[in-house]
Design brief:
- It contains twelve helices and twelve strands.
- The protein is of the alpha/beta class.
- A ten-stranded mixed sheet has the order 1-12-2-3-11-10-9-5-6-7. A two-stranded antiparallel sheet has the order 4-8.
- Strand 9 (189-194) and strand 10 form a beta hairpin.
- The chain starts with a helix and ends with a helix.
């Protein structure tokens, strides 16, 4: 019964922990500390802040989101911007896009690399014979010190960016352009530096228009823009887009297949994926799983019946002698009481100490003393007193009480 009660208490306790854990994690705001670059996301490395900022700057129809390729829906005149890890432009739409820029429009790519389709056209070995493979150089550091080169953007001010994960500053691969791209014949214009010596922001003239490339999309995420100085730096980069019409590109965020679909692996829609995809349900699932494992471990312990508490042996002979003594003492038949008490004493000695004695004279005081632990002289005194009183027809109350005290001493102290 106690074992079942213990299990019920344990289950109730674990259920209480589960209850509080569910509400704790359900109401707790959790953050994903890796680069996501989602427009509608509110995680540290999403883009909702800069997206809303540009939308406020270009209200109404002046701000448009592109959700199709350039061959199908080429933007009207204005400015174009893409912010993300990489822009996947296909070769078939690159020519149309460059013709759009040549008309006098501006395009800004804030990515980790120049889009590959544009790289093959914009980076020509004939212009810079020492041009190396690739267009970006990366160095690992814990902080990035950046500044603008345009005189109107306060080039003396150095702004520090960090890559944070929770409460720690982690090392990060900060990007810059290879020096071989800025040869004597190159028309690339440096607009910003990182670590004081590397170029991370450039302008590329294309006909009447310009293509701007910034190699650190990390600087434009939600977490970075909560700081005033870093937000001011980002505004300085975006200030090169001067048209009242702005196109935000969402279509080229993922690489496309032949049918124009995003080449991303869809996660299977299963109950477990739904649970793990929700913060509250995920932590509740973990707590339930841990509870089940804990209960299983506890249930593995060896089970057995409850061992009852064994009370120590009591000397019931003393209680019996006291009861009978009170009975005969009240009847004032002291001689009968004396005989009854001796009878029960001899029976007690035979059963407890295995001493064969039918009468008091047959009891060996040394043997009984050795087995009972009572002093020999006290045993001898008990039997001598009995022999003296047993020859009388009547004895007084004091004599009966004296014998009882000797007998009581024996029962209380024997072992």
């Amino acid at each position: 019964m106690k074992n079942k009660r213990y299990n019920y208490i344990l289950i109730a306790f674990l259920a209480l922990i589960l209850f509080f854990a569910f509400f704790y994690f359900a109401n707790r705001k959790t953050f994903i500390w890796y680069e996501t670059y989602r427009v509608q996301g509110d995680q540290p490395y999403d883009l909702s802040v800069v997206f809303n900022m540009l939308g406020d700057k270009h209200p109404g129809s002046q701000f448009e989101v592109i959700n199709d390729d350039f061959n199908t829906a080429l933007p009207e005149n204005g400015d174009y911007i893409f912010i993300g890890e990489n822009a996947f432009l296909s070769e078939s739409e690159t020519s149309s896009f460059l013709r759009w820029v040549e008309k006098g429009n501006s395009a800004m790519f804030i990515t980790k690399v120049i889009p590959k389709a544009l790289e093959e056209i914009l980076l020509e070995e004939e212009t810079c014979p020492d041009l190396k493979t690739g267009n970006a150089y990366y160095f690992v550091d814990t902080i990035a010190k950046v500044r603008h080169l345009h005189p109107k953007l306060n080039p003396s001010q150095e702004v520090i960016f960090k890559f944070k994960q929770k409460d720690k500053t982690e090392s990060y691969d900060f990007g810059s352009f290879d020096e071989s791209q800025f040869c004597a014949n190159s028309d690339f214009v440096p607009l910003g530096t990182i670590q004081g010596k590397y170029i991370n922001f450039i302008q590329i003239p294309v006909g009447k228009g310009f293509i701007y490339v910034h190699l650190s999309p990390l600087f434009f995420t939600n977490y970075q823009l909560i700081d005033r100085e870093r937000a001011s730096y980002a505004s300085g980069v975006l200030s090169y887009l001067k048209s009242s019409k702005l196109y935000w590109d969402e279509y080229h965020r993922f690489e496309k297949d032949e049918k124009g679909n995003n080449q991303v692996i869809d996660q299977p829609d299963t109950p477990l994926s739904f649970i793990l995809g929700n913060t509250s349900l995920r932590w509740s699932f973990y707590v339930i799983l841990a509870t089940a494992v804990l209960y299983f471990i506890i249930a593995l312990r060896r089970k057995q019946k409850i061992i009852p508490v064994m009370e120590p042996l009591r000397n019931s002979s003393l209680e019996f002698v006291q009861a009978t003594g009170r009975l005969y003492f009240l009847q004032r038949n002291h001689i009968l009481l004396l005989e009854m008490q001796m009878k029960y004493l001899l029976e007690f000695i035979r059963e407890r100490y295995r001493i064969k004695a039918r009468t008091a004279s047959e009891v060996s005081s040394p043997l009984l003393s050795n087995r009972s632990g009572i002093e020999e002289n006290r045993i001898q005194q008990l039997f001598d007193e009995y022999n003296r009183l047993s020859i009388y027809v009547e004895i007084s109350d004091a004599e009966a009480i004296s014998f009882y005290q000797l007998l009581n001493h024996f029962y209380k102290n024997c072992h």
